[in-house]
Amino acid sequence: MAMTPSDAVAGRTRTALVTGGTGGMGRVIAARLAADGFDVAVAYAGEMDLADATVGEIKAQGRSGAAFAADIADSDAVSAVFDAVDDRFGHLDVVVHTAGINHPVALTDLDLADFDAIHRVNVRGTFVVDQQAARRIRDGGALVNISSSMVRFAPPGLSAYAASKAAVDALTRILAKELRGRDITVNAVAPGPTATDAFLHSTPPDEQKQLAALPPLGRLGTPDDVAGVVSFLVGPAGRWVNGQVIYANGGFV
Known about the structure:
Number of domains: 1
CATH class: Alpha Beta
Strand content: 15-25%
CATH superfamily: NAD(P)-binding Rossmann-like Domain
Distance between the termini: 43 Å
CATH architecture: 3-Layer(aba) Sandwich
Order of helices and strands: HEHEHEHEHEHHEHHHE
Shape: globular
Helix content: 40-55%
Largest sheet: 7 strands, parallel
Radius of gyration: 17 Å
Oligomer: single chain
């Protein structure tokens, strides 16, 4: 009987790298992958104590964890993170790229320095991470980029952010085709409004209620909702999903 893609990844220790691993979404995704049986490395640009806490959550699932600081748009720094993952774990099977920034301002008022900062992290950062991931992930692995439902919803004030995530969608679809022959899936997950700490602290309560009322399911998303979709995409059941942008938003758009 011929070996299936899921057979190809069965029975071996798997390693994942999650960028933005100290953020509300990245931290939960890292913990979920550890619960799924992955050893997990996280890349972060924030505070070391948050990175240590994420590693602690990974280890609480009985898996090995490590954290590496990096400017996600710096190609040398990102390459060094991938080198460190290779040195620490010996191989890499999955990359989940969650790192990104936003600066909500109307297009006519947005300072071009802020525009450049958003695109440096969200577009260049995705390109840099995806480039290294494509070179380093073992055959049979998976890459997941975190995009945004704001590409489709197109709300006022998020022109630069939505444009940057539209670029993420394009990079995802093209890379999936470029990796033909290696049995590596490349997908993006596009959450809607998600109740991370950053969202809850930056969004007024009235606006939170308005956004929660938009999906037919009648609530905000949670990081666990997004982590569940990522878990599916990088697991055996998701092997036939490739080159797609998955809108994980409860029917928001």
